[in-house]
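Researcher: Next sequence.
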Amino acid sequence: RGRQTRDRLDAQSIERVAALQKQVRRVRSVAPQRLLAGMRGAFGPLTAKVFGVPADTRFAFVCLEADYQMKRISLALERPPVRGLTSYLALSRGTSQFNRFWFVADYPPINVSSDGTVFEIPKRGLKLLASNSPTKVKTTNPAAAKFAESFTKHLPELARVQPVFADLQNLADLAVLAALIDTDSLDRKSGWDLTW
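Model: Next structure:
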């Protein structure tokens, strides 16, 4: 599994990230501006890869744009647009290590009526995760974990001021609904013809 994850990443990006991590380890505490300059040099332009949805769809565009905006906030390239949200760079106090951040759908169980005809999604669920490993889903970095938790907590507010986060939440809701229709064959049960 770890090998498959690594293969999806651009090989040059992995090398640049490793070089940055080595540089950060050498200097225990790095001033945020110096770290940012080092990151720009180490990363250079990264290649965005889309998987799970067709790359030429609005769904893919919204996923990329939300990810881009979140990463700008995490790296303090953009001031957090809501109170109480602190960038990952500020939380790490210049001793940061590389972390990946990404969004996942995180919904509680769906309520279903006894006859199976009524469904309720009790709470919308979009969550930010962090990892400092290409093969593990959970980070060992407290600053990254705190940023991911805080970003998740502030997502409803962020969605009100940055529409791309509302779009991403709506697409997550749509994906859950589509999975429900498919898994429970609701189209067939209701006589809904899904052919175009």
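Model: The radius of gyration is 19 Å. Confidence is low (pLDDT under 50) at residues 1-8.
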